[in-house]
Amino acid sequence: MFESADVEYGVLPFIRDAAGELVPLQPVDASNRASVQYRAESAVIAGRYDGAIAFSRSRDRRSGGVKTAIIAQFGELPESFSEPTPEMSH
């Protein structure tokens, strides 16, 4: 984590398109770490998404650097998201 950082939380949901491929939707904001995990998991369990990644993003106020970290993964995800730090635009 950065020394003086602003932290944001989000859910990156995935659904299957008409061809059966898992595609990402727009990220959904969450207020904190517990909330982001709950939102991601409950949406997959309820069948709204085929998969979801709960993530955090830290922005260093001094340098402008950004670090993204996966908190949890639920359901089905594309193979391209098997790496621990995917690019997730917000």
What do these coordinates show?
The protein is 14% helix and 42% strand. It contains one helix and five strands, in the order βββαββ. It has one helix at residues 33-45; strands spanning 5-16, 22-24, 28-30, 51-60, 66-75. β1 (5-16) and β2 form a beta hairpin. It is globular and about 45 Å long. The two termini are 19 Å apart.
Q: Could you provide a short overview of the structure?
A:
The chain is mainly beta and 90 residues long. The chain has one helix at residues 33-45; strands at residues 5-16, 22-24, 28-30, 51-60, 66-75. Strands 1, 2, 3, 4 and 5 form a five-stranded antiparallel beta sheet that branches.
Characteristics:
90 residues, mainly beta, 5-stranded antiparallel β-sheet, 14% helix, disordered C terminus
Number of helices: 1
Morphology: globular
What is the helix fraction of residues, given as a range? 10-25%
| Helix and strand composition category | mainly beta
Parts with pLDDT < 50 across at least 5 consecutive residues: 83-90
Mean pLDDT: 86
Beta-strand percent range: 35-45%
Give the biggest beta sheet: 5 strands, antiparallel
- Structure summary, number of beta strands: 5
- H-E order: EEEHEE
* Terminal Cα span: 19 Å
Chain-wise SSE layout:
Blueprint: E1 5-16, E2 22-24, E3 28-30, H1 33-45, E4 51-60, E5 66-75
Antiparallel strand pairs: 1-2, 1-3, 1-4, 4-5
